[in-house]
Design goal:
With 280 residues, the protein is α+β, with helices and mostly antiparallel strands. The protein folds into 3 domains: 146 residues, 2-Layer Sandwich (Beta Polymerase, domain 2); 86 residues; 30 residues, no CATH class. The protein contains 12 helices and 9 strands. The chain is globular, with a radius of gyration of 20 Å.
Length: 280
Amino acid sequence: MAAPVDKGRIFLAERNEATRRQSSSVVATKATPSVTVAGAEAFYRDTLNELLRSGVPFLVAGGFALAAYTGITRETKDLDVFCKAGDYPRVLAHFKRCGYAISVEDELWIGKVCRGVHYLDVIFAAPSGSAPVTDEWISNARQAEVLGVLAPIIGPTELVWSKCFIQQHDRFDGADVAHLILKAHEDIDWHRLLSRMEAHWEVLLSHLIMFRWIYPSERDAVPAWLMHELLDRLRVQLEMPPSKRRVCRGGLLARSDYSIDVKEWGFVDFNGKGGPSDAA
C-alpha cells in the first residue's frame, strides 16, 4: 500500500521553491551585530539551519537585517525571524520535534524558541497585531549571509514598515527608520511602502518629516512625489471636521502606553473598543 501523501509538506515545498526564485537578490551585508554571549552564535547558526530544513518560509529581521543594510552594529541578545501567522505554529512545532523549548508569548504577534539562555523570537505581526507578515513580505525578501548561513532576510521596504510602528516609552525605532532611509533609500519601494501604510499615512509622514529635520543635506533621499502626496493629504484633511467618535490609535504604536486613554479617558481604541459605553 502506498504511503499517504503529506499535502501540507508538498504545499510548503512548492511555496518555498517559489519564494527562493523570487528572493534571489543577494545583499552584500555592510556589518553583523555583535554577539558576545557564550554559545549564542552557535545557537543562532543551528536555528537558522533548522529553519531552512523545516521548509517554512521565514525572514531574518531585527539587528541582523538592520546591520546588513546600514552597517550599524549593536550587541544582540536574540535572533528575530518573521513568518506568516499561519506558519508560526509550524515553526514552533518543528523546533519542538528537534528538542527545543517553545512558548507562545502573545497570540497576537510572537512565539519563542529556547535552548538554555538563548532564544529565537518568531514574529508574525506588529506587537499590536496590526501589520501582519504576508506573502508579499516573503516574496520581496533578499538573501544574505548571516553568521555563515545564507538565509532570507527581510527587504528594506518591509523593514521600514515594521519599525514605523515601534514607538513605546522604552523602545523607539525612529532612529532605525531614519538610518534605513539614509543608507537604503534606493532599494526601498516607496510606492509599495505607501500602499502598505495607506490607512496610517500620517505615521509615515511623521517619520519622513523627522528624516528631513535630522538630515537636511539628504532630503532628496525621499522622493519629492511622495512628500507632495502626503502633504496634500494633510492639506485636505485640515479642511475636514474632527471625528465625532473620540478615537485613540496610539495603541497601534504602544498598547500599554495608551491604555489609560481607553480605560479611563473615554477614547475608543483602534479595534473600536472602549469609549463611554464600555466604561459605564
